[in-house]
Design goal:
This protein is an alpha+beta fold. The protein is built from 3 helices and 3 strands, in the order E-E-E-H-H-H. A hairpin with a 5-residue loop joins strand 1 and strand 2.
Length: 104
Amino acid sequence: MTSKHTPGEWIFNRDSNNQWTIETPNSDDEQGNSVIVEITEDRPLEEQIANAQLIASAPALLEACKTLVDSWNDAPEHFRNKYGNIIDSAVGMAREAIAKATKA
């Protein structure tokens, strides 16, 4: 399945207008980055930075969730039977996060 979101690494940056942005490296602007989203300034600075870091990490978090689910699905049955009660909850949360992130 192909992703509908902007591919690649996302980074957070402060632009020339002192606005926090989430960008992906490419050649759309003079800095070689393409802005994906701007973080609102009506929040305290610490919260703006935390929001930007969380949003910028979204592609990596999505990939980690997919890897967890795929690994669990590929695990041998005896392993799933032995550790299922421990791991099923985390895998379920990962599935929910994937669904939320990829729904149309």
